[in-house]
Write a structure and sequence with these properties.
Layout: E1 3-7, H1 15-19, E2 21-22, H2 28-37, H3 43-54, H4 68-77, E3 78-79, E4 84-91, E5 96-102, E6 108-115, E7 120-123, E8 127-128, H5 138-142, E9 146-147, H6 150-161, E10 172-175, H7 185-196, E11 208-212, H8 216-224, E12 230-234, H9 240-246, H10 249-252, H11 255-269, E13 273-279, H12 287-296, E14 302-308, H13 322-332, E15 339-341
Parallel strand pairs: 2-3, 7-10, 10-11, 11-12, 12-13, 13-14, 14-15
Antiparallel strand pairs: 1-4, 4-5, 5-6, 6-7, 8-9
Helix pairs in contact: 2-3, 6-7, 8-11, 12-13
Length: 364
């Protein structure tokens, strides 16, 4: 399939921009306090929140219910966003689009817009790079970078919202891009609070999913704090020996500890969890592997997403044949609550599960 690839030439973030405070990432209540400190009526903050999050406006000049003098003052002292689009790749049918967004100070993170005839999904990044080094993941090969701020996460969603067809308002959000969301817990929860706030971007909590490699303490914290976001666990193996080879985190947080936190999450929230399982030929795709997986998730309300491996360059991993994938799925189906085989969108543009690595950075 032909792929549309376009590099966007934008000015780099300059010193003047860096001195101004970025309003994206502030809650409506925090914006009220900003305007009170400016000597303005607090309701101006609610107006700006509606422009920023409700309507996705990217400039103060467009905020026409604010006095012109206030708009000029805001433009002098504040910014709307801090990311610069450096590259964009699209599949030929435009159903998948990957944006390379440059961070202040350098480095590129990627956000992905995915669509079908009935659904639109935003895949957001939480970190630049990742310290967890999962063997099958391109981001893991980058190593540790830095956590993204609340504003940088929210801005990804706002930029992807501009990709929606006219008149479409509903979409899903998955924290499955670059990085480990629960390692950047406070910023991710802060961003999702703005996304799900009726006075913010008004995305229902049931349409938001947080994915994790299995940070058990943070899973427990998420459950105890009462958040209603959906939880996806990157499992990928059903034995400690096998999982530790694929995912180094398992040496610190073995399956028994992880599954205890998952059961706690289910008990506290009443929500089922999703287990993500990347199928790797002759490594974790046998019927014996499927049987171990059934035993591991027994009695847990869950859905299992089987993801055929997406290539990330030279290596020992291969995608199983269609026959092996079918056999694995069919073994699971009568034995677990729900099973889906998910062929990722955007493989041909490096936008699929496990492929994000800030590749646009090399083009700048």
């Amino acid at each position: 399939m032909d792929v549309k690839s376009e590099t966007i030439d934008r000015p780099k973030n300059g010193p003047d921009r860096e001195r101004r405070e970025n309003l994206l990432g502030l809650t409506p209540q925090e914006l009220e306090r900003v305007f009170f400190a400016l000597g303005e009526k607090p309701y101006r903050g609610r107006q700006v929140a509606d422009w920023l999050y409700g309507m996705g406006v990217g400039s103060f000049e467009a905020m026409t219910n604010l006095p012109a003098s206030l708009r000029a003052r805001l433009a002098q002292d504040f910014t709307v966003g801090c990311l610069t689009e450096r590259a964009r790749r699209e599949t030929q049918d435009r159903r998948t689009r990957k944006l390379g967004l440059e961070l202040p100070g350098g480095g590129v993170v990627e956000a992905v817009f995915m669509s079908t005839p009935t659904r639109h999904t935003f895949c957001l990044s939480s970190q630049h790079g990742c310290a967890f080094a999962c063997r099958f993941c391109a981001t893991g090969r980058m190593g540790r970078g830095r956590n993204l701020t609340v504003g940088e996460i929210v801005e990804q969603a706002l930029r992807l919202a501009r990709e929606l067809p006219p008149g479409v308002r509903e979409y899903n959000v998955v924290m499955m891009g670059m990085g480990e969301p629960l390692e950047n817990y406070d910023a991710v929860i802060g961003a999702l609070s703005i996304l799900s706030d009726p006075a913010g971007m008004a995305v229902p909590s049931k349409r938001i999913t947080i994915s994790t490699v299995g940070l058990a303490p943070q899973i427990t914290r998420l459950a105890d704090q009462g958040f209603r976001y959906r939880l996806a666990i990157s499992l990928h193996a059903a034995s400690d020996e096998q999982r530790s080879k694929l995912m180094p985190i398992n040496r610190k947080i073995p399956l028994e500890t992880l599954m205890r936190s998952v059961r706690h999450y289910v008990e506290r929230t009443g929500r089922r969890v999703t287990f993500e399982y990347i199928l790797l030929e002759e490594l974790n795709d046998t019927l014996a592997d499927a049987a171990r997986l059934v035993r591991l998730v027994a009695q847990i309300p869950c859905k299992i997403n089987l993801i055929p491996y997406n290539p990330i360059g030279p290596g020992r991993f291969k995608r199983p044949s269609a026959e092996r994938i079918h056999r694995f799925a069919e073994y699971l189906r009568p034995r677990v609550p729900a099973v889906t085989v998910r062929y990722s969108q955007g493989v041909e543009i490096g936008a699929a599960c496990g492929q994000l690595a800030g590749e646009a950075q090399a083009a700048t």
